[in-house]
Amino acid sequence: MDVAVIGAGPAGLMTAEVLAAGGARVTVYERMPSVGRKFLLAGRGGLNLTHSEPLDQFLRRYREAMPRLRSAIEAFPPDALRAWSEGLGQSTFVGSSGRVFPQAMKASPLLRAWLRRLDQSGVRLALRHRWMGWSTTGELQFETPEGLKTFKPDATVIALGGASWPRLGADGGWTVSFKARDIEIAPLRPANSGFDVRWSDLFRNRFEGQPLKGVALSFGGETVRGEATITREGIEGGAIYALSAPIRDALLALGEAVLHIALRPDLTASDLTARVGKPRQKQSMSTYLRKAASLSPVAIGLLQEAAIVAGLNLPAMSPEALAAFINAVPVPLTGIAPIERAISTAGGISFGEIDPHYMLRKLPGVFVAGEMLDWEAPTGGYLLQACFATGAAAGRGVLDYLTARHGRA
Questions:
Q1: Are strands 140-144 and 124-126 parallel, antiparallel or unpaired?
Q2: Are residues 171 and 202 in the same domain?
């Protein structure tokens, strides 16, 4: 049986591997001239494949989508993903944060080994094939360098990702074809994104690109320890991404959101009060804060920026008030960074549109997987894990579908 897989990211390639192992003839169609471009970008700073935390805790990272993703991830859990990587000659290790990385840290050695195995299993790649939807007779249509081409496989898996990083291939253009088929799609929104802040020119020009290290960020009753980076437009970074979903939703609903940053979360209120209660003498306020509270220049700059916005005079504050301000610096957020710069995408095809095998109920024989489904997760290995797991689930679903219809794949 011939199966078309549209999209050559982690979800699509994992689907192809499962299908080929099950005896299907697989062609992977990709609009770009090479495969796995976003996967390679994800590995630029160290490929975070998955996370080592207990599975129940791991699954909670998917928030509202957890019940829908549970079966796929339980069938292909983090340990299975690590074993799969090691089967490609890429052993893994657990970092100090619990994140799992290949020993090589990069995505390219893993992708090269994977593509060799797919080639050996008979998977064919059709590059520079941009999917244009279905013809009036139900054939897949592709725009290619040779013109429009059509194909009618026995089953199709579509894994075209979300709408972040469109220059790498995922631009969300697939939504048009699905909406035309009356498929319910939640609006695509930035996930794991940065946010806009109206920095003063002085602060922006001095501290753009500098990290706030060892801070704690709080929003909506949730606190995350980690790092954040000052950008020209606002703020981003791992700790920001962990809170991006509730911040985004608040901004969309209310038009405003205030993030609070603890610059010395390791100190108790009494300890910090004692430190900033020492006589300042003739020191400048910046020098005093650097020595008394051990604040970095960017942290001091942020504190001064926030004080100006709030109409506060730092030197005139009591030790108690200054300590409280240092560990709850208010940062008004004014907007969401564009989806093109987000790490991932929220929204997508509603889970109510698919059956337990990831087949679209309204389009028998058409399956979907990966980030184009309506789920989101923080960084830390959860994004890739769900892409791999749903890709594997869709592959198994296709094999079951073909077996039921034709007695074989």
A1: unpaired
A2: no
Distance CA 383, CA 61 (A): 10
Question: Which residue spans within 38-82 are E strands per DSSP?
Answer: 50-51
Question: How far is it, in rounded angstroms, from Cα 218 to Cα 210?
Answer: 20
Report which residue type is found at 365. G
Q: Say if residue 106 is in the same domain as residue 63.
A: yes
pLDDT digits (tens, 9 = 90+) for 18-59: 999 999 999 999 999 999 998 998 877 789 999 999 999 999
Report whether 126 contacts 30 (CB < 8 A).
yes
Q: What angle do CA 365, 368, 369 make, to 5 degrees?
A: 145
408 has a pLDDT exceeding 80: no
Whether 258 and 358 map to the same domain: the answer is no
CA 48-296-204 angle, to 5 degrees, is 80
Question: Do residue 183 and residue 215 come from a single domain?
Answer: no
Residues 204, 182 share a domain: no
Considering the domain architecture, whether residues 208 and 163 belong to the same structural domain is answered as no
Those residues whose C-beta lies under 8 Å from the C-beta of residue 302, and which sit 6 or more positions away, are 203, 207, 212, 230, 261, 263, 329, 331
pTM of full prediction above 0.85 = yes
Rounded to an integer, what distance in angstroms lies between the CA atom of residue 204 and that of residue 12? 41
Domain boundary, last residue among 316, 336, 356? 336
Domain range for 372 is 2-191+345-406
CA 26 to chain centre: 28
* Of 317, 336, 355, the domain-final residue: 336
**Structure tokens given for 140:** 């897949």
Report the pLDDT value the prediction gives residue 303, as an integer from 0 to 100.
97
How do beta strands 335-336 and 329-333 pair?
unpaired
Average pLDDT, the chain: 95
How many domains would you assign to the chain?
2
Residue found by looking up tokens 């240092």 in the block: 326
Share of the chain above pLDDT 70, in %: 100
User: Is residue 261 a contact partner of residue 230, using CB atoms and an 8 Å limit?
Assistant: no
Phi, psi angles (nearest 5°) of residue 156 = -135, 140
- CATH no. for residue 19? 3.50.50.60
Same domain, 82 and 230: no
- 3-class DSSP state of 377: coil
pLDDT, one tens digit per residue, over 151-202 is: 999 999 999 999 887 888 888 999 999 999 999 999 999 999 999 999 999 9
Please list the alpha-helical segments (H only) found in 258-371.
269-276, 285-292, 297-310, 319-326
